[in-house]
Design a protein that fits this description.
The protein is α/β, with parallel strands linked by helices. The chain has 7 helices and 10 strands. Strands 3-2-1-4-5-6-10-9 form an 8-stranded mixed sheet, sandwiched between helices.
């Protein structure tokens, strides 16, 4: 099976890529990235395509992606690192453009959007900004799949919580270093506290990557069970952990 991946140099993307590289059901991985992806080097089934404009997919690029059956969209950024305009472009415009461009590759075409706990498709006064924006793209993607011209699209939005790479040593050398220094200093003890006091709010990267890949290689049908919402298309962190056997 041929799958597309974005965000491969980030934490969640690294987790997904490791699982894709080691999954025998996946025979080809097309990684769209602004820069080289060292983890993918020297792997016969991985091709890294340097792409800088994630709102545009010209014909020559689409030709290289033909035959793909799904996409894991792990490209993202913290709202604290960019302006609101740029955050909304990356969080909303990029995946929307990609889902439209990729939907004709196969039927069904699975599009797995990495969202986050706190996303809310019906935000209220107390919903944080990032939750409003992520909820907006979750709704857009679901609505897109109801349009006749994108009828092959099968969308899932997965909402990780505290993404934890501690027990996934295979990706440690590839994941980005935390910046600023205060974040690098505070994050490990914060995750350690979550593991002890609230493990349900932890998203171990090994299992997170496994579930992302599971959705991408699956049949695209609606899910069911505790923690599943959005017409069977939204996967909470609790549901992800359940699906991973945690």
């Amino acid at each position: 099976m041929h799958l597309i991946l974005t965000g491969a140099t980030g934490l969640v993307g690294s987790a997904a890529l490791h699982n894709m590289l080691t999954n025998d059901a996946i025979t080809k991985i097309s990684v769209l990235s602004r820069r080289p992806v060292p983890m993918a080097e020297n792997h016969q089934k991985a091709q890294v395509i340097i792409h800088t404009d994630f709102t545009s997919y010209p014909a020559d690029l689409l030709a290289r992606l033909q035959g793909a059956k799904g996409c894991i969209w792990a490209l993202g950024v913290s709202q604290n690192d960019v302006s609101q305009k740029v955050y909304e472009e990356i969080t909303v415009d990029y995946p929307s453009a990609a889902a439209k461009a990729f939907s004709a590759f196969s039927s069904p075409f699975k599009f797995i959007y990495v969202s986050g706990e706190g996303a809310n498709t019906t935000p209220g006064r107390l919903t944080p900004y990032f939750g409003r924006v992520k909820g907006q793209i979750e709704s857009q993607l679901l609505n897109l799949s109801t349009k006749p011209e994108y009828a092959a699209l099968r969308v899932y939005s997965l909402r990780p919580a505290g993404v934890d790479p501690k027990f996934h040593p295979e990706i440690h050398q590839w994941i980005p270093k935390l910046k600023p220094a205060t974040k690098a200093y505070l994050m490990p003890p914060a995750l350690a506290t979550l593991r002890t006091l609230s493990p349900a709010m932890v998203s171990p990267t090994r299992e997170l990557g496994q579930v992302l890949v599971q959705l991408a290689v699956g049949d695209g049908e609606p899910l069911s069970g505790p923690g599943i919402s959005g017409e069977g298309r939204t996967v909470s962190n609790a549901a992800m952990r359940r699906m991973a056997g945690l």
